[in-house]
Amino acid sequence: xxxxxGRDTADDPGARERPAPAETPPAPPVTVxxxxxxxxxAIAAVHQASRQATMPYLPPQRRTHDEVTRWVREIVLPQCHxxxxxxxxxxxxxxxxxxxxxDQLYLRPDVRRRGIGTLLLAAARxxxxxxxxxxxxxxxxxxxxxxxxxxxxxVAVDDxxxxxENLPDLTxxxxxxxxxxxxxxxx
Length: 187
Description:
Elements: E1 30-34, H1 40-54, H2 65-79, E2 81-87, E3 90-98, E4 101-107, H3 116-127, E5 132-137, H4 141-149, E6 153-158, E7 169-174
Antiparallel strand pairs: 1-2, 2-3, 3-4, 5-7, 6-7
Helix pairs in contact: 1-2
């Protein structure tokens, strides 16, 4: 008798021959590294997919994948310190820092809420430990909650006249909390 199924295996000749279900191998870890020029097409794909999935209030995309790839390769990568999050060969998201501006942080829609944005933000903070600021649409409640959770605070409100989408936005700032200094002569 097969105690797992309660059936007599003598009545089911195939019962002893069935292989055990294969275990799925664990996924490779997510790593963050500097972007390479060869990452431009994947970064462009993440950028377009993320904006479409998370910002339905934006007008339909007018730029092709090739145009966005060219923008990433010719503008974003040369002008920004750009980090990518990868799992094996897959590019999952990216963050671009220009000076103390976190100019871009986008994830593939299917990997949101898994800590990948936090990893990219941590890389940006390590790059600019004295602080960062960013702009976010007021309608982007998900991004606003993410940044608030990570210590960003609203420092300015804009009516949208300064962005190409003409949508009201906020300027958020993160400044690290100063560590208390120990008195002189004490370790």
